[in-house]
Amino acid sequence: MQTLTMIYRSILFALSIGVAANLTAQDKPLPVLQYVDGHGNSYEFTEEGSSYLLEFEPVKKTTKSGSYSGGEPATRRISKESYDKVLARMDQVIKKKRLTGTRERGTALIIKSVKGDIKEYILPKGSNDIKEIEALLYTLF
Prior knowledge:
Number of domains: 1
Distance between the termini: 63 Å
Radius of gyration: 20 Å
Order of helices and strands: HEEEEEEHEEH
Number of helices: 3
Mean pLDDT: 82
Largest sheet: 6 strands, antiparallel
Strand content: 25-35%
Low-confidence stretches: 1-8, 16-25
Shape: globular
Strand order of the largest sheet: 6-3-2-1-7-8
């Protein structure tokens, strides 16, 4: 019986450490909207009061055939109006239902979080929607 009690205590201790580590890893709020381009560069929108924080996280990688850099990381505070414009454009793309089922190189990804419910939408490679969304995002930097 003591062995079983010790096992339970060990499990509870491990779980409490995991929960504490997860809380400290979650220093910043989760994005409400994220766009990942065909190279894996990420644009994350996080709500901050009456405005939004837009973080660009580029990919930098070296392969046998060369290297790729998505640029330098950047953070911008944007207005609710600018965010709403981007969100409206992404919602138009989602409603068209010209999406693909698999995430491959060259496809883009929209991730939306609404009240904790996370949805992912994959845009097909080479679509005009990708070009239009990325052009809109570039204007914010």
